[in-house]
Amino acid sequence: MWLVRRLLASCLLSLPITLLQAQPMKYEGLLVRTIHFIPVQQPVDASELHDILPVRISQPLHLADVRAAIAKLFATGCYLDIQVEAQPYQDGVALVFRTQNRWFIGALSASGRIASPPNRGQLETATGLELGQPYSEAGVQQGMANQKHLLESNGLYNGEIHPVFDWDTGRDYQQVHLRFNVDSGRRAHFTTPVLQGQTKMDESRILHATGFQRWFFHSWKPVTQARVREALDHVRLLYQKEDRLEAKVTLDSLKYDPQTNAAITTLRIDPGPQIDIRSVGADISRGKLRRYVPVFEEHAVDRDLLAEGARNLRDYFQAQGYFEAKVEFKEQRVTNDRASIDYLVNTGDRHKLLAIRISGNHYFSTEDLRERMFLQTASFPQFRYGRYSENLLRRDEASIINLYQSNGFRDVKVTHKIEDVHSKGIGNISVSIQIEEGPQYFVADLELEGNVKINKSVLLSRLSSVKGQPFSDFNVAIDRDTILAHYFESGFPGVTFEWSSEPAPEPHRVILRYVVHEGAQQFVRQVVITGNRYTQDGLINSCLTLNPGDPLSPSAVTDTQRRLYDLGVFSRVDAAIQDPDGDLKSKYVLYNVDEARRYSLATGVGAELGRIGGCANCLGTPGGTAGFSPRVSVDLTRSNLWGAGQSISLRTRASTLDQRALLNYSWPHIAGNEKLTLSFTGLYEYSRDIQTFASRREEGAVQLTERTSKTVTLFYRLAYRHVDVGDLKISPFLLPQLSQPVHVGLAAIAGVQDRRDDPVDPHKGLYNTFDLGLATHALGSDVNFARLLVRNATYHPIGKKVVLARSTMFGEIRPIPTSPNPLEAIPLAEHFFGGGGTTDRGFADYQAGPRDTSTGFPLGGTALLFNQTELRFPLVGDDLGGVLFHDMGNIYSSLDSLSFRVDQHNIQDFDYMVHAVGIGLRYRLPIGPVRVDLGYSINPPYFYGFPKGSTQQDLINAGPVPCPPNVPNQCIVQRLSHFTYAFSIGQTF
């Protein structure tokens, strides 16, 4: 018997074989009778092993085939060592492959006594070990060294790290899970830093700038990496304030003194000369120089940065109407530790860009071209002199050229001409852009080669450059991305694409040739989930979009990752392909999840400012008075109950107007359907935001939410509530049922359709909502009524920047059976109340609709109709915009009383339409525009009310009818203010 041992790969293409017995060619050419693997369980599937090995049973044995077999096995990435033995067997030879499997990184975590910073996530990232990558001892040691360095850079010099390995020996996917037990130890503190170099400044100022020392007791702060960075930045900023723009401040060392537990920081400072940057020929503020000259930001002075500053200043002046502005810079040598840089500015005359003319365009309309241009003619107030600069003009020309070339006009030329417009005044100019389109090139034929496993018709149906379509490099690039994306989704990670073109016999026609090299197709062998301690496997499996045998699609991998995040129970979901560089056709898809904290606490503090009413018993403020209401909120949430993704939360809010506690139990993905969410809610609320009364509300509800599509969501709800009305500012003798508690059992269905382009600041699209409910004795309700509330909002762009937005709201509450007086049949707390920034800015909040004839306080109504129209337009630049608005509508006592008339018949008549006009400002922020509106009510209502300072006792003493027309001394005629205001974040609708 002879033995072939230690066949290891020095590379995958050349693997030497050592023959440990004599007569190495003894078995050359003999038939292979059997092939065994030790261990029997191999990381490569048996069918794939059969395809990989060039050695076959009943085929002659050749040493070259053995070498090739070892090379292909190593190429899979699954093996660390391979040994091959050969021995006589029957009339041939038996081959035995002894293998040592490679391990791969699985779940990675850090735990123990970790003093943040660094936090657990930073320690995990510092290792440099990634999910699915091959495991090595050297990699683990390097990872621990990185963690140790991270700890020391945060002042934790005595930290200890111990790795714990969890080998998945009973699994096929050969993962090793790593847990680093960290004891960060005691954190060092700063001490007086060592300053090296010529500081040219009082060292006490530098020490103060570092921020190492606390202002009280002069104690030293603990060392963190962030504080070191901030110290360097602050010292550098200190020198910049002294005009030392080239100052360099670096950390030379951070040495630990174990005796004092202090970190001695050594800063190396090169202050550089004082550099004075000035403008000559034009007055430019220091702030604008810092904004437009990048040497301040880059902390360096070189000619490239100075030249960039000159271009920025030129563009700034041109944007201000100085279209002929020229800016140059001049440097002076350093003398006595000082140097100066002068920007020489010649603004020229100020102009207005009155016209932009485009000619020669036949294929595209002028409007289509103007939409892609940065140049703007003068318009007040947004662009007082227009928007023009040489840089913007070049960008517009390039944009037009790219547009034409992407549509087949390969020879297009664009030129411009600047002309004075003397007829409109001195200094006015126009820009003329001349386009020479040239011939349009088309695809005469498209040849697609190399596709074997993907149907040709499927690929051609997705391409842009098919026969008869315009030819351009842009369309070819789109086709390339389309083809590669389709192959990637089908599991071909190594696909490549080439293309070429040649002229067709017909003029301006091109024959295209696409060549695809598919490479090997990869499939999913198994999906492996690790890291979940509490979350049930069934919940995770419901999110998987990959199954064994599916093509290995990157989008499916990321879609599963997104769905896992959407469960709301994981703070982190890592996705990877195990050994992505290996040659195996079937790959493990790995997901390592990090479960979020199951308990979370959130607190908030806020305030409400506006017309929020007077005291509880005062009658002299039916129209509201300006007031201030502080607000505090505390929310506690327990997530991932029983590992099923369910959660329970308690949300509380307290203010001088409202006390609220909401207990909510949420069950997402009910019945395994990710579109369904079931929730149970318990609510207690005491509210005084409506001035007429205070209400105490206790409610229980169950709701099923169904997301039927990307834009449509439906809500099915059953609710039962007890409402108690108190602190009435109207006479309970007139409407005795208003002061009685009431039970309401309600079944409702609601829906939302959202097709806005931007929910925060929409410019086009529509937004529809409806809410239909039925209160009935069958659900325990004291009263029977039906409730409907619908809203439709649309957004129409006018040109590029102006938006016409409209919102219409309609609602009705109808008693069952129909009552002659719906106001008395429907409980007061169930009435519609409206007015304010989101319904009609002719009223303050909740001031619309019918009023009590005795006190003038609002009663609400059983019908509503509001329409809001806004014209939104830019004002100054791109961030500040304006709004012209018109609001109309009211709360009505009943649907039969709904009217479009604009006049108030008498002082008891409130069923008419109130109109308001106004202006507003919008300042764009990342979270939405800040909104300030000033409205003018054209026809606010009159009403009887008690004089200012009246109390509840005055109402009792006045008797059952306190304000008849013939007793004017008991009350006065009042009217709501013509002027209203609204302030909030976000658009009105």
The CATH level-2 architecture of the largest domain is identified as Beta Barrel
Q: What name goes with the CATH superfamily of the largest domain?
A: membrane protein fhac: a member of the omp85/tpsb transporter family
Secondary-structure class: alpha+beta
Query: What is CATH's topology name of the largest domain?
Result: Porin
Q: Into how many domains do the coordinates divide?
A: 8
Overall shape: it is: globular
Unreliable residue stretches:
1-24
CATH class of the largest domain: Mainly Beta
What profile does the largest beta sheet have?
16 strands, antiparallel
Describe this structure in words.
The chain is α+β, with helices and mostly antiparallel strands and 989 residues long. The chain folds into eight domains: 4-101, Ubiquitin-like (UB roll) (Roll), CATH 3.10.20.310; 104-183, membrane protein fhac (Ubiquitin-like (UB roll), Roll); 189-270, membrane protein fhac (Ubiquitin-like (UB roll), Roll), CATH 3.10.20; 274-346, Ubiquitin-like (UB roll) (Roll); 352-436, Ubiquitin-like (UB roll) (Roll), CATH 3.10.20; 442-517, Ubiquitin-like (UB roll) (Roll); 523-595, Roll (Ubiquitin-like (UB roll)); 602-985, Beta Barrel (Porin), CATH 2.40.160.50. Helix content is 17%, strand content 39%. It has a 16-stranded antiparallel β-sheet with strand order 25-26-27-28-29-30-31-32-33-34-35-36-37-38-39-42, with no helix packed on it. Strands 9, 10, 11 and 12 form a four-stranded mixed β-sheet that branches. It has a three-stranded mixed β-sheet with strand order 3-5-4, covered by helices on one side. Strand 7 (160-167) and strand 8 form a beta hairpin. The longest helix has 17 residues, at 137-153. It is globular, with a radius of gyration of 39 Å. It starts with a strand and ends with a strand. The model is unreliable at 1-24 (pLDDT under 50).
